[in-house]
Amino acid sequence: MGAGHPLTLKWLGIDTYQEAVIYLHRDCEVCRSEGFEAQARVRVEAAGGQIVATLNVVDSDILAPCEAGLSVVAWRQLRVADGDTVRVSAEPPLDSLVALRGKIYGRRLDAAAMRAIVDDIAAGRYANIYLAAFVAACAGGRLDVDETVALTRAMVDAGQRLDWGRAPIADKHCVGGLPGNRTTPIVVAIATAAGLTMPKTSSRAITSPAGTADTMETMAPVELDLPAIRRVVEREGGCVVWGGAVGLSPADDMLIRVERPLGLDSEGQLVASVLSKKVAAGATHALIDIPVGPTAKVRSPQAAALLMTLLEHVAATLGLSTRIVLSDGAQPVGRGVGPALEARDVLAVLRREAGAPADLAERALMLSGALLEFCGAAAEGTGIATARGLLDSGRAWRKFLAIADAQGGFREPPRAAHVRVVDAPCAGRVGAIDNRLVSRIAKLAGAPRDAAAGLELFVKVGDRVDAGAPLYALHAESPGELDYAFDYVAAHPETVVVLPA
Amino acid sequence: MGAGHPLTLKWLGIDTYQEAVIYLHRDCEVCRSEGFEAQARVRVEAAGGQIVATLNVVDSDILAPCEAGLSVVAWRQLRVADGDTVRVSAEPPLDSLVALRGKIYGRRLDAAAMRAIVDDIAAGRYANIYLAAFVAACAGGRLDVDETVALTRAMVDAGQRLDWGRAPIADKHCVGGLPGNRTTPIVVAIATAAGLTMPKTSSRAITSPAGTADTMETMAPVELDLPAIRRVVEREGGCVVWGGAVGLSPADDMLIRVERPLGLDSEGQLVASVLSKKVAAGATHALIDIPVGPTAKVRSPQAAALLMTLLEHVAATLGLSTRIVLSDGAQPVGRGVGPALEARDVLAVLRREAGAPADLAERALMLSGALLEFCGAAAEGTGIATARGLLDSGRAWRKFLAIADAQGGFREPPRAAHVRVVDAPCAGRVGAIDNRLVSRIAKLAGAPRDAAAGLELFVKVGDRVDAGAPLYALHAESPGELDYAFDYVAAHPETVVVLPA
């Protein structure tokens, strides 16, 4: 059967988000001889490698029968140029789909089956519908503890694994769901100022308006390759970079491409995602923050306890020490929600500005203190005081600037072109702020794609406000997005509830 | 916000299988003003209607910034032509996705939530990954009885519903998984020859090498619209047409587009799919055949009993009378597997040819007899004899020809260009035939896309064979597919097991 005649690549520039797609003319020889139909999964071989892609059959003159087009992601994966040649052949059905179907039908996945699925995912052999089916089949408590361990281990093994040649290697993670809770850059600055090694690899937003990598990117470059990361960490003891550029858990990066549009982030996947990236990043000590609140990701102390147990068990099985902190998840943290707006809060805390958000500072100090104690850089009971000393003295700020410089240079976060304020409908007291609605509005305004977009909160729960006083502002880069977010605001007055005085 | 400036349509002819995709240039005004990104779901409005499509952003000269392209299915849905204009606007997030996420997380769907999901699916508002997640979340026994009833009812209500103004209206269905088990055209011929009304709407293959509609299409046109179906049924009392052309259960047709590549056909979906189409087709009496065997879809009497209970309960709730027959699913039925090869078997039985497959004839008579008794066209205990009389006298054959004529004209099924025989490796007795492998091989040979492709079995379980005697033949339209199927045959000698004598 072989790989057929070579086809000449033509740049079509079609961005399919992250699915590898190949475009072939209906009359191309390989389509006819192999009997390919639209949506077939085919193997595409170029000089520099091979991928599996979904076939879209083209019946127009944008391609000649001897030409092939690729989606942008496939073009990048194969590192090809206009006029290069590729060969296309049938991709045998994936063996791991049998295991996937078994899981969908309710059967347990053993370690070997889980590994087969994860390896195929990491290699890009799963079409989006397979990824979506896998994610849905594993959500809702349908991964047991052993399956979660197997998933985590397979995710680690499918990617790069860093070794720093020393211990402890500190890490932290927040389970999320709390807009504006951007403590990581502050914690890294304090921990490394205290002498800990903390090579922090962060993610971009999945379903939230900003990930730590998105926020850090408004202050310094984050897409560093591994040698660059090593140089930064050797020099400064820590970094805040995007993990996706290093391929620490490529299967997780693939799953995110369906979790994001589906708005899913389920327990077993969450544990595997978090812990696989910590283990792959070479961490020995991971501090995990779980905010608990009625509109946070984790809504009750019972749910938090279950998640803690699972995180601790899986981490221990993989040889990672964890300390878990439950924190207040009742309302957003700081003022800004969105990459640049959150960066402004981070900078205000590090620079000890008068108007810096106190809640963000206190959370960062609490977490830094716990991490210093956990990693032996402060005696039990003295961590917070040590952290506060490092922040108040300006040492944490200087360390942050040094890290940003080492990553490629510090910069001030951008400001949005359009701002619109939402006022209090009446005088009274702020009764509640809905985390989920705040996140949604920030996203409708353009975050995280537009780094400067998002939402700026002027009030906290319990604050007294006058009628017409500003509650929050929308920041957007286009009038369309500002209008769109504002329409949503108008339809959802419960975002910030003002109880009449 | 509005729908932005009009864009001029350009035919790109990209076949994305069945997902509606719109292609817009990166610099088009609506992309910039709305901040659209690749994979966004957008509303596309044309003169004749509107659809929801997935956005692919294009960065090349195949489109100008003022132009838009559509995938083939979107082009058809909107009934547009080159040069027509469309308007594109943001599609608000679907409310039913909240219910979908709830189901994925393990919550029950009430009737209203199920209806919201099914209505969005039927209207084409679900991207493939949402469909895949829904199917996976409902598989493996995760739909309870009430949810299955709600799903079935919502599927019926989302589409056309036929009313024949009389009773009984007979229908039959086989739960499938048994290659070559193509009794429907024979049963319709016998039942209508007996005076019953049987307007049979059939489906195309989902995961099998042939659906009844695929097989019938090799003998007569099956894509009839509703007025044409009514004319056929008024004249002849019955038909065998493709249900998809009539929109009886459009949500089910959408789900099939992910069930097929996923190879999924789970219990709750199966029951809802089967019964929604029967109810929508106006049936009052449905005979359901469940073949049971180790490599059939239903593998044990226990599984069959569970499925029977669910089918009967849901059907009764929707006011449909059912009679369920369990049949032997140990091995394929007839000789042919694949649309045209199965049609040859059907014709051999109807024409009472000497070499007609006896097992297919006996099954068709058994089912026809049960249906005649169930619908009151024969006294209990006399159905099979009545059916045999109609077949042996040639009345069923003449009725079949009349139906085929009324549908647009009878034709002989095609023959494949390439045939290759697989021989017995040794002398002995045929010990087993694996239904699943037989189906897979027929599909690798090109069925059901190539109507003439598939597999022709020369032996039954228990037959004695000499070394080198032909066991079965592969039929394909291209040498590549023949080779591909043969490679699989060589790797799977257990397809037809010959026990040495």
TrEMBL record, chains A, B:
It catalyses: thymidine + phosphate = 2-deoxy-alpha-D-ribose 1-phosphate + thymine. The keyword DNA-binding does not apply. Its EC number is 2.4.2.4. GO terms for cellular component: cytosol. GO terms for molecular function: 1,4-alpha-oligoglucan phosphorylase activity; thymidine phosphorylase activity. The keyword Transferase applies. Keywords: Glycosyltransferase, Transferase. SMART domains: PYNP_C. PROSITE patterns: THYMID_PHOSPHORYLASE. One of its GO terms (biological process) is pyrimidine nucleoside metabolic process. Residues 429-496 form the Pyrimidine nucleoside phosphorylase C-terminal domain. Belongs to the thymidine/pyrimidine-nucleoside phosphorylase family. Type 2 subfamily. This is Putative thymidine phosphorylase. It comes from Crenobacter luteus.
